[in-house]
Amino acid sequence: MHPTIVVKDVCKSFGKKQVLNNVDLTVESGQIYGLIGPSGSGKTTLVKLIVGMDRPSQGDVHVLNTKVPDLHLLQRIGYMAQADALYADLTGEENLAFFGSLFRLKKAELQARIRYAADLVNLTADLKKKVENYSGGMKRRLSLAVALIQDPEVLVLDEPTVGIDPELRQSIWAELRRLKNTGKTILVTTHVMDEAEKCDCLSMVREGEILTSGSPNELKEHYGITNLEEVFLKAGGAKG
Length: 240
Ligand SMILES: Nc1ncnc2c1ncn2[C@@H]1O[C@H](COP(=O)(O)OP(=O)(O)O)[C@@H](O)[C@H]1O
Ligand SMILES: [Mg+2]
Fold this sequence. Notes:
Elements: E1 3-14, E2 17-28, E3 32-36, H1 43-51, E4 58-63, E5 66-67, E6 77-80, H2 92-101, H3 107-120, H4 136-148, E7 154-158, H5 166-181, E8 185-190, H6 193-196, E9 201-206, E10 209-214, H7 216-223, H8 228-239
Parallel strand pairs: 3-8, 3-9, 6-7, 7-8
Antiparallel strand pairs: 1-2, 1-4, 4-5, 9-10
Helix pairs in contact: 2-3, 3-4, 7-8
The structure holds adenosine-5'-diphosphate and magnesium ion.
Residues 43-44, 82, 158 line the site of magnesium ion.
């Protein structure tokens, strides 16, 4: 194993408000890594620094041995933002074609990727509809398909399953595991504990700090408890 994402001593402030405090994080190649924490704890801020959409106030981030931000990295990282960034007056298919065209894909390859990504998120039947007529869950699914369109080595997904029904959530997690088994590295944020259980490794985030990290089992053993929700409470309590 070798590290795919390395966050070193990162701080981030907005004005006087410090949102991330000395965050260190290493995601090994081929892992599904979860960032779990309550709303406002800093997950999205951290993820944006990792994909290069924003810059740390202190510290640095490397992805695939390259210092972020880097133009060439964009091709290799699929990013699904928390807020859907889609063109409402285009169809689902046109959105996928547009985002796909930003990458170096041959026409046939692009068509194949559109079919694959749409099928994965169960949108094939809705591809010809305009996104303005999509439900919230359909938009999340399309955003996930967009993140996968260029077949990136690293996937960074910010609360990918919010607004998605349980059945499709299961199938998306099954696909994330399949992608992991083909060697992809996946960083996912969530505030849902049952999703945290599905990760190989977790960091629990609160108030801009990482409280504790480890595999779900390691964390449970370390704190001597059987569910992650309690680990979160204990780790938070230990910090004071
Ligand atoms: N651009 C910004 N300007 C000022 N404050 C921000 C900005 N982005 C995020 N914050 C603040 O940073 C904190 C962490 O937010 P965020 O990273 O979105 O948390 P999470 O994704 O865990 O819900 C919040 O208090 C939020 O209000
Ligand atoms: Mg967020």
